[in-house]
Amino acid sequence: MMRQQFLVQRIKNYWHTAFLFIGMLAIMLLLGYSLFGVEGLIWSGLLGAFGLYMSTQIPAKAIMRMQGGRALRYYEAPELSRVTEQLAKRAGLEEVPQLYYLPSNMMNAFTTGGKQDAAIAISRGLLEQLNFRELTGVIAHEMAHIKNNDIKLKGLVNIIARLTNMFSFIGKILFLVNLPLIMAGTYNFPWIAILLLIAAPYLVTIMNMAISRTREFDADLEAAKLTGDPIGLANGLQKINYLTRRGKTWLSPIQKVSIPKILRTHPTTTQRVNRLRELAPHYNPIFEQGGRQWITLYDRPRHIIVQ
């Protein structure tokens, strides 16, 4: 029964993502066509393909360096490295993602690259505050993004969003340039283009955020499957949320205000935790969570103990 529910949820997430992606693509193409006709469609496709190709040519390690990260050596975190290898094997990845360390107090983790060149970043804040069980859940969540090709999907929808904004900007300039002729009635600017110029950037942004939320839910489901321990990730998410709100980690003014659901790139912590806890009775943890692990980080003159 649980396997059936899991499959149904995955299918729902897949079609939700597909529907939103097609909607974004349609808006971009319609805007290009309304402004430039068939040539607009052709240029939209060419620019999108070129942008996607260029985004995949940047090595993951270069992106990590731009974020201020460095590779986490095996002897610095042997147990964390071993569990990463096991998760990669369970996810069916041919290459084990490289762990990177971010010298930041922000409680943050993210992944970049494709299946053949993936990297997972873990901040100092996470290593200091989360225990080993919670870290395993977080790494499994990032591993799920790699398995599901979410990084490539995110890059593609970002390209669509940027092209839509570019077409909108060009269209607004053309509208202003031709405004005297429009007012005089000697030039007929397509009204559908005017409506799209106004609405398209907002619609695409909202769809982009909705796709991101769906992919986060899917990554949570996959992480629970990889570890057999939904509670580990749920506890980690709760701790991150609690410590962030308590001000023990850096928090931007934007994050301090309440953000409407439609403008969130991630589901609320409560939503994610509730879903994970519902899965818990149907799973048994795969990885041992006992013991202690020394992690030596050389940007600080001390050791960090991950329990």
Radius of gyration: 22 Å
Mean pLDDT over the residues:
79
> How many distinct beta strands?
6
Distance between the termini: 35 Å
Total domains: 1
Class based on secondary structure composition and strand pairing = alpha+beta
Helix tally?
12
Keywords summarizing the entry:
four-stranded mixed sheet; two-stranded antiparallel ribbon; 8% strand
Protein described:
This protein has 307 residues and is of the alpha+beta class. It has one domain (2-306). Helix content is 64%, strand content 8%. The protein has 12 helices and 6 strands. The strands form 2 sheets. The chain has a 4-stranded mixed β-sheet, with helices on both faces. β3 and β4 form a beta hairpin. α1 (2-36) packs across α2 (38-55) and α7 (150-177) runs antiparallel to α9. It is elongated and about 75 Å long.
Q: What would a concise description of this structure say?
A:
The protein is of the alpha+beta class and 307 residues long. The protein has twelve helices and six strands.
List the helices and strands and how they pair.
Layout: H1 2-36, H2 38-55, H3 60-66, E1 70-71, H4 78-90, E2 98-102, E3 109-112, E4 119-123, H5 124-129, H6 132-147, H7 150-177, H8 179-184, H9 191-227, H10 230-246, H11 253-256, H12 269-279, E5 293-297, E6 302-306
Parallel strand pairs: 2-4
Antiparallel strand pairs: 1-2, 3-4, 5-6
Helix pairs in contact: 1-2, 1-7, 1-9, 2-7, 4-6, 6-9, 6-10, 7-9, 10-12
